[in-house]
Amino acid sequence: MADTILVVVEQREGKLNRVSWETITGAQAIAAETGWTLEAAVAGSGVGDIAKEIAATKVSKVYDLESAKLEPYTPDGFVAALKPFLEQKQPKLVLMPHTYQVRDFAPKLAAALNRTLISDAVGYKYEGGNLRFTRQMFQGKFAADVSFVGGPPYFATFQNGAFRADQIVQGDAAAPVETVNLDVADGVVRNKPEAPFKEAKQAVDLTQAQVIVAVGRGIKEQKNIALAQQLADALGGEIAASRPICDAGWLPMERQVGSSGQTVAPKLYLALGISGAIQHVVGMKGARTIIAVNKDAEAPIFEIADVAVVGNLFDIVPPLIEEVKKTKGA
Amino acid sequence: MKILVCMKQVPQKDAPLKLNEGGTWIREDVSYEVNEPDAYALEEALRQREKHGGEVVAITGGPPRAQQVLREALAKGADRAIHLEGDGFVTLDAFNTAKAFAAAIKDESFDLIFTGLQSDDYGFAQTGVILAELLGWPHATIIMQIEKSDSGIRVKRELEAGFFQFVEMPLPALLTIQSGINKLRYATLIGIKQAKNKPLKKVSFDEVKPALGENLQRIEKLYIPQKTKKTEVLEGPPGEIAKKLVDKLRNELRVI
Description:
The structure holds two protein chains of two kinds. Chain A is of the alpha/beta class. Chain A folds into two domains: 178 residues, Rossmann fold (3-Layer(aba) Sandwich), CATH 3.40.50; 124 residues, 3-Layer(aba) Sandwich (Rossmann fold), CATH 3.40.50.1220. Helices cover 28% and strands 28% of the residues of chain A. Chain A has nine helices and 18 strands. In chain A, strands 9-8-7-10-6-1-4-5-11 form a nine-stranded mixed sheet, with helices on both faces. Chain A has a five-stranded parallel sheet with strand order 15-14-16-17-18. In chain A, helix 5 packs parallel to helix 9. The longest helix of chain A is centred in the C-terminal third of the chain and has 17 residues. Chain A is elongated. Chain B is of the alpha/beta class. Chain B is 28% helix and 29% strand. Chain B has a nine-stranded mixed sheet with strand order 9-8-7-10-6-1-4-5-11, sandwiched between helices. A two-stranded antiparallel ribbon of chain B has the order 2-3. The termini of chain B are far apart. Chains A and B meet through helix 3, helix 4, strand 7, strand 8 and strand 9 of A and helix 3, helix 4, strand 7, strand 9 and strand 12 of B. Strand 12 of chain A pairs antiparallel with strand 9 of chain B.
């Protein structure tokens, strides 16, 4: 059988997670370079429409993997269903988006097949017949090129934003969809999930903000939040924070930006004392302009900043507030 | 409830890291601390024990320096600790780390295993999930709340974009814990004193080696990431930087 890349797209409650388009874009690029065949699969219960949606993109085939036991999602159900399917199909490479759902089952799936998963990759390299995946390490301070050892199937997941969904290649004609009914035995699924819910109605919608002033650990103490707030007020923007600040209760969780908080794309994102850990960066790298103030010149936030100020935020922010007020008043 | 907490020692958050000569790993002469989500996992285990009774055991793998993580766990209230001691544990992939832990606890009978949701060094977010698979246990990831139920436990999973979900499952089970699930305690002086007399079992690399396989993924090269953006660096005294920034905000970005 020819070498095949299989993209397992993500659906939640019968809806395709848009980040799946990015994974297909990445897979299309790998397929073009390696000459491997690209196929896709969606697993769930009654997800034929999603399979059809995917079939419009440039892939050779789409599998609609069906079982009543796949709804609602559980890691036990997904692994029990996907393991025999992969054993039979023997793809060379299995690609998925690095979502919370995939993080929940993909390591178990790879281990059940006695294989490994390169998680949270931001890119790939194909050189001299060797496929490597690039992933961030040490909170983004370093990148690593990682290769697989042993035989396929090889598993990898792509970080949000690793590829651009708008660069996906559409197919000339719809790809064939094959429906496969998967058998998940009774008693295999031990997790009993309840319906997803939101904690409280979010009062703050950071996604609509044009200007965001965000604080990280560098703010040091709760009382210093007021300084950042003054700057946000002067700029007519919203204040936001990285996770540790919200964990500490210095700002409410609804002001958290990052993988577990809100994803924002303002005109201006002013990062004060934020190191730029991956979990934060995925939530704000879409900002049009990123200005970062950090005393550590090596902070990963500077990798994605448009304007870098290496210095103590407590020295920079007070005169900045004054200047903004002066300019606005003028 | 008998709870095992898997913990890891990682470089301190703001420690300046340098690459080793081969560009395969960092230089080891940095300051270390406990991986933050693991500290929350330990705290949660201690709170569960306070509510339901039982025992809390901390486990780590790493060179002698990693013992500090266990000492802190014992000082905060863990009953005993297991140290898989050796340099070899540093370079294991997630699958092998899980295999090493599984081998080290094969004669134990835990009701729950907690891990942090991911580590600040490798950032695999996999070891806990794989360990559950090796043990044949159910698991749930990114947990923000744990309560006992009639048939086992009911846990609150964090989903993306502000969503949560409760999941019930039987015991024994493995949970990966999210930072912020609780408020961390400090070790007390008495705790630190008592920790010295608590059991700390050492397991050598050779003892678990038969359970390990070849690493199935290999770091070929570690390097400082290439910038994808052109970054303008502003320098000078704070007053001058403030002026330059405001000029940008007004004339280039037009946000004021």
